[in-house]
Amino acid sequence: MSLLESRTVPLWIGNEAVLSGITFPVTNSATVATKPLRPGSGVVHGSGGSCSPGRRICYESVEKKRQLSYGQVETPIDDFMVHQINIQTSIDLLEELAGQIMHTTDAVVQPSKQSDDMLAMVFREPLGVQVGIAPWNASLFLGMRAVATPIACGNTAILKASEKTPMAHHFIGRLFHDAGFPAGVLNVIQHSQEDAVSIVNALVSDSRVRKINFTGSTAVGKIIAANAAKHCKPVLLELGGKSAQLVLPDADLDKAAQAAAIGAFTHHGQVCMSTERILVSESVLDKFSEKLAASSTRLSENIRPGASAEHTSKVAALLEDARAKGARILGGGEGAHQDGSFLTPRILVNVTREMKIWHTETFAPIALLIPFSTVEEAIALANDTTYGLSASVYTTNIPLAIEIGRRLESGSVHINSMTIHDEAHMPHGGVKESGWGRFGVPWAPRNIRTKAYVVQGEGDPFTLCDVVLDEVQPNEVLVEIWYTGICHTDVVVQHGGMPLGGYPAVLGHEGAGVVRWTGSAIKDKSLKPGDSVLLSFHSCRQCRFCLEGRCGTCPHMTETNFVRPARRDAEAKSPISLLDGTKVHGQFFGQSSMSKLAVVAEASVIKVDARPEELRALPPLGCGYLAGAGTVFNVVKPQVQDSVAVVGMGAVGIAAMLAAKSLGVRQVIAIDVVESKLKAASSLGATHIVNSAAEPDLQTALHAIIPSGPNSIIDTTGLVGVLEASVKALAHGGTLALVGVPAPTATMRLNALDLLLSCKRVIGVIEGAADPHIIIPKLFELYRDGKFPVDCLAKVYPAEQLDKAITDLESGLNSSIHLFALIVILPMASAIARAGLLAGKVSVITGASSGLGQAMALEFAKQGATVVCADQTPGPNGNKNQLTHEIIGDRGGKAVFISTNVADKSDMLKLIRDSANQFGRIDIMVNNAGIAPEASEPRPIWETSLQTFERTWGVNMRGVFLGCKYAGTQMMRQERNRGDGRAGTIINIGSILGVLGKPGTPAYSATKGAVIAFTRAVAMDYAPHSIHCNSILPGFTRTPMISAMTENVEIEREMAQRHPLKRLGEPQDIASAAVFLASSMSDGITGLNLSVDGGLHSQLSL
Fold first, then answer.
1. Which residue intervals define the domain Enoyl reductase (ER) in the entry (predicted)?
2. For this structure, is 238 an active site residue?
3. How far apart are CA 723 and CA 767, in angstroms?
4. Where are the alpha helices (DSSP H) in 847-903?
5. Could you report the per-residue pLDDT of 659-706, keeping only the tens digit for each?
6. How far is CA 706 from CA 681, 697, 734, 755, in A?
7. Residue 1 burial (CB < 10 Å; 0-12/13-18/19+)?
8. pTM for the model
9. What is the pLDDT of residues 56-80, one digit of tens each?
10. Which of 238, 602, 767, 859 is catalytic?
11. How far is the C-alpha of 609 from the C-alpha of 701, rounded, in Å?
């Protein structure tokens, strides 16, 4: 860097540049050049009070800051630091503040626990003057962070600039001025190093200063904290660090090595989050060291000098102390190689706790490479420091990484990312001697950014948008929406056909998902994060109807579900906003479930003990199914001898029909104009069906079935003609339940005298006159018992087909689709992890690199399982382009590879132990690995060698024995799976040849026959321990093993003809069978040898 020209850098006071006659030199360590600086003198404080936040001004600041250049950077900084950390991160911070600034002074309403009629209001108020003390090493961003967030929250701020980077910190004052901030909002103080102590003491002791934030060394931070304590002032401190990067055995070593080198050497190591310790598993230490040395060499060529020759000399002394006590430099090399402020980057090995460098933050391009043998040791080493600012964990096992991260004593933990990582919308700070408190936008306004489908105006389409959710109130629940139903109500409201509080709006009123947060004042104390929940309509829970369990009859239904948000604060503000601050009508039906995250009123949240695979079928229980079934249970209340007719076989109508059937009602009549729906209703239990389009008179049609007329008619159409005909068709004393929504101007014509003399009644029913907290658990139990088969009634649309789903709904659907409800999967949850039959389970599959093993591994991952791929090589014949665990990872699943010889006892024991240690349990063990030496060269028994027989037995049977023994023992030690109640599942892969035999394969057929008998015996052993054990017997299936037997098409065709289904099996056939045996669908099965052979087993011979 060339000599900087002489430049005057003033103080910035009251929006004006203030000069004094004082000058002091600023040294550029890259050239040891100086420039004179003329700052102002004295201390001038901000105006106190609060400043009205302005989003426009923040956005103006962003545009001004985009004009930054190297001219504002006085210290030698590499391009990454300039562009990514200093400039771009500053812009990100301002943009986040601009998007959320409106919420910083919101009120929080707390319901009183003494009385429902009392509310407590908590207001966020600005503190006043806040002092930010920023360092030089990332001067632009850290200076901006020190003052921008306090200002956004309505405070005024004083930036005490660093004497090493006066221009950068002066630029921040100029930036706020040019963007239009009022005078006195931000003052910037410049000073010499000699005056630093007196300036800080004056600021801290001044009565107008209400809070101090400091970023810098731990030693200085302690002094400032002690001084502030004397004046009872809060402080926010981000101090030093000794950050550790953990590299586990299954990590991507190339990425981990590159991250470690960048994390250690960026900005000459002068970053508080620098990677100073690299903890590596002993099993990959050599490979990792080679890659780290290569990455370090490449980066060293572009390392710029440090900021101070004096500090560099101190670090050189630490290096010499370590070398004198036995440490050495990775890749060779001697000494520290100091050249002024430049220090040659070094990775030290053979370091011990006796060395000073083990405990001391170097703030230099130096890192320690430390091996570990177990995860527990790695955690202990990482925590063996007085610091706790940042850490990182490299592994493909994300659940394990999260578990490790929660045990690390660190302010932040980054998974598969380097320790130098900070984002504006995330909290940032340390623990232990790395400070306390958190910087970051969420720690001021505390709002949540998510995605939702927004209807911008009446008749507009559903558009996926970024939105901001307000802080969850004490009587609310934050729910992660996995699935949401969409029905006619959403579409009618979209087009303005029903009252709504306004647009833009987020609709959706049949959500299903998982609790992520609960407010402190919710009444259901059993509700906790992680619980599966269904969402339903909102009611006041206070009127006589709600107290009697008839919440659907609540007189406030329209108001709290359509017109205004469910929250009870004084202004009833929606919890949803667009990024520009525009309020979005939210808490539609207490939920607005067409969103990734939803702030839901407690009254709308119903806890269910549902497995992940069940949730996708259940959203309509919250409204459509509830409305129909509730009308039967709560209003009509039919007896066994009664007759019930249901008009309209939509979601509501079919639910009413199923509810009547569950009560054992004698006659249930389904009425519709779509023949396919009527046939489906008949298959579900309707005793009679009526196609009203083919019948000129509904009364005549019903009386032809029941001469006296049905006791009850439930109408879901809302059509006046149908309603009038239904009244006439009713039996004496009968009830017409009006459930469908009529047109606003619809008018029924009834003969009042006839109504009186026949003792008939017509009653309007909203939401089944039901309490969701009572009826939904009841319907869920009926579903579990098979009496309410809603899983076969709905069609699931992926999120990208939302428009098609609505079109299908509005058009009445193709008559060939027996569809009663629509469930739209919004892009809120991973289909692999949350919708699958094996969601949350941990599986171990031997022989997973190819053939049947690979097919099962891929399908297990697709169904949500974590997969441990065990084999001798990770790909087919070592093919690195087809690695099973990498394919799973690329598809969004979770998988690791563990090299295993299934015939080796120690390998199998290690496989089970390592899998259980990494993932906490093993739910599924698939013993698949096998060999077939006779496949390519069949031999009769008299030509089969003992060596061939023993080798085949050693893999095919010994591997199954070891897998069953060690996996089963692990399963007996662990708790039962919450989803299906099992301790574990074992699946052994046999062969149909174990039943039928085949000439020329005595060894292979014998081992597979042994697997069959062995499986039955083991199943009986493990049954008392809730461990299921079954086997799958494939027929001729397209695998590499079969390929060895079918070298030409004719042989393959002949083999296929032997199967009754006239085709060879596919690996996917076996994978699907394995999923069945591993899932809750096979709860009543153990000891089964399942033939998947196209019917081959039914023949007496081959």
1. 457-813
2. yes
3. 19
4. 851-862, 884-890
5. 999 999 999 999 998 888 888 889 888 999 999 888 878 899 999 999
6. 19, 14, 13, 20
7. middle
8. 0.48
9. 444 455 555 444 443 444 554 454 4
10. 238
11. 43
